[in-house]
Structures are given as C-alpha cells and as structure tokens.
C-alpha cells in the first residue's frame, strides 16, 4: 500500500492488527482486489475457519471470505484498540460504512467485496448491524446477572453469523434460523467457558452471576483462580446446558442441502469437542485453557472430508 486510503480514519493508525499493509492501493476500487484482500485477511486468522472453508463448495467460499472479513474488522475495532472510547468511535465509523454499503456508496475494500455478496444473496442489513450491537455492548457491559441476559447477548454476538451462513446457502425461513441460533449460541457459550480466564483478564465475566450465587462461588474466588468443587459444579452446569443447545442445533443438518450439511455439522461437533475437553480437565478452565489438539482437529476434519467424498 503506497499511501493510506482517505476512507480510513486517523484513529485506525493507533493499532495495527487490521492488515493495513495488505490493503489495496489508494484508488484501487476493483472487486477483484477487494476480494483478494478479504481472502488474505481470512487466511491469516484462525485456522479453524480455514479448515471449515476448505470443505465448502468453491462457489460459496469467496463469499464466506467477504463475510468473514467484515466480522474480523468489526471484532478488531472493538477489541484491539485497548481504549473503550476509541473502540466505540471506530465502531460508529464502521456502522456508517456499512450503511453506505447498503446505499451503494462503497470505499473500503471489505465493503466493495461484501456489496457483491449482499446483492447476490439478497442479505438484509440486520445481521451485520446486530453484530455491531454486540461489539458495542462489550465496551460497556462486563457482567451478566442472569443466564437470560447472556442469551440476549448471544442473540447479537453469535446468532447473526448463523443467519448470514443460511443466507449464503439460500435459506431465509425462521425454522432453520431457530435451529442455527441453537448452534451459534452454543458455540458462543462454549467459547465463554473455554476463555473464562482470558475474559477475566479483560475485566469481563460471562458466567451468569446468578449461577455463581447458586454455587456459593464469588467473583473474588474467580479472580483468585480458586478451582474447587463449587467451581467444578458451576462449570459442569454451564457445560451440560450448552451441550443441550448443540444437540438441538444438529436438527438443522437434516434441513439443508448436502453441499453444506457436513460443514454445519462440523461447526457443531467442533464446539461440542471443546466441551469434551473442559470435562477432561475436570472443569478447570482457570489453570489451563482447554483447546483441541491438532490431532483432534485433523481427525474431525478428515472424518467429515471422507463423508463428503462418500456423498459425492
């Protein structure tokens, strides 16, 4: 990139995790360049996403990259600045760019690419804007009193992603969206239970405070890293009801085309495997972050890749 494009606010320069060096040159507004940028951005983040994308039909893969790039920028604007006020300022800018995209006035490469996807699949603005609601909430809300409050957060932070996937696959009905919501909420919750310590270091607690009270476990215990029977029972309770959501979400697999059925099931099974790992650690997520080993991820991938070959 020879010079910083004029569509970027100066505040973006205060942090550097948005692949600024990979942006197309100023003045290059071609869809091809924008799509290449989205692909590069997706490939340099989170290999789990790429593993799943490798199973997707080629005709859909690039559109998933476009949506992913939007989510990646949104997330980084919210979490990578280290400054709540700056994050809120940048999220407002990003929201304005989103609206401009729907008004057919695009400048940023993510939106140049995304506009093509929006037009092809007739995607409404709501799921994109709902994600920004969740990112703003993360800047202002650090505790959740009830499980219902956490689920309401997931309605904005996770469920829109599932709706976007369904739009890309050609589905718009409420029945499929509800089953997708079960899986997406479960994925968000599994991530919360996996990252209790990580979130605590950011000043956030997603464990419902009513459940801490239920097991007579306090925030002070959490901050001290206390892992005892109270904590294990608290985490077992979260894991069990999250597993129920994963099981409910599997119902979607029988209602989608075979081209994407296995990919959706893989998303679900990978999330459930995180819960399995939490159980193997006897619910101690404070001493060691539960993760899937490379062998486990490869095994899941191969299992579903072989299923796809069998279907073909």
Q: What's the mean pLDDT score?
A: 88
- How would you classify the helix and strand content by structural class? mainly alpha
Overall 3D shape: globular
Largest sheet: none
Series of H and E elements: HHHHHHHHHHHHHHH
Report Rg. 20 Å
Into which percent range does the helicity of residues fall? 55-70%
Number of strands: 0
- The first-to-last residue Cα distance is 43 Å
Q: Count the helices. How many?
A: 15
Q: DSSP strand (E) fraction?
A: under 5%
Please mark out the parts with pLDDT under 50 across 5 or more consecutive residues, or reply none: 47-52
Mind explaining what this structure looks like?
The model is unreliable at 47-52 (pLDDT under 50). By secondary structure, the protein is mainly α. The chain contains 15 helices and no strands.
Q: What topology does this entry show?
A:
Layout: H1 31-43, H2 47-53, H3 58-79, H4 84-102, H5 109-121, H6 126-140, H7 147-157, H8 159-169, H9 174-194, H10 196-201, H11 209-214, H12 219-223, H13 229-249, H14 258-280, H15 294-311
Helix pairs in contact: 1-3, 1-5, 3-4, 3-5, 3-6, 3-8, 4-5, 4-6, 6-7, 6-8, 7-9, 8-9, 9-13, 9-14, 13-14, 14-15
